[in-house]
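ok trying again, last paste got cut off:
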Amino acid sequence: MARRILDDVHDRVADEVTAWVTDLDTGEAIDPDAPPADREFRVAMTYEAWLAWPPAESRVSEWCDGEVTVFVPGSELHQDIVLFVSILLSWYARAENLGKIIVAPFEMRVSARRRREPDIVFVAREHADRLDGKRLNGAADLAIEIVSPDSVTRDRRHKLAEYARLGIPEYWILDARPGRSGSEFYHLTPDGRYQPAFPDADGRYHAATLPGFWFRPAWLWQEPMPDPVALLPTIAPEAWRRTLAAIEST
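nice, full thing came through this time. structure:
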């Protein structure tokens, strides 16, 4: 009985979405089962409808103040950067028992009226209770956004202010637009503002929220991009030796 009731609710919500999916910017009707893949669009929708909407399962989208923004699927460079950075961070976080790396799509509950989905988040071990298996309830310790042509203002202005208000200690913005290369790093100050942080004289950026971790942003725009696994012994030789020893002992 309970399962049937839940299915009925899901169907009603889905029917509600189907009835009025319209691009808020253009007024154009959108097929909810086959949304456009070549452009970003916004639709008015309740949070419950967003959770039940099929494209939310396969496309990265965010719900804020009664509106859903559905993003253009990432470019090849966008996805390469996500994979490269997440491999480095995930291995290091696990090797040093610091916490967990999660990649989009994964909901971060910013407030009762806002849900964001950063491209990559780091949740420190001491904040693991913010994860409930389906979403992150509250602030990540590190949020990373990969800039696409449609997301420049959102990532560099709106989210910069929003993530600071939320109290995310560290924020990275990495540019994946065609013909562009660039990175911005921000650390949260005690008064709740983001202060720019920069690579050192050798071009290495040292993460604030993963002590001991560093990487060279220039790696992201090399042709070809380096093998991230081959870089691990250079970034953290002691952790790498422990990893190899653990593998050999199994």
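cool. The chain is about 35% helix and 25% strand. The CA atoms of residues 112 and 132 lie 16 Å apart.
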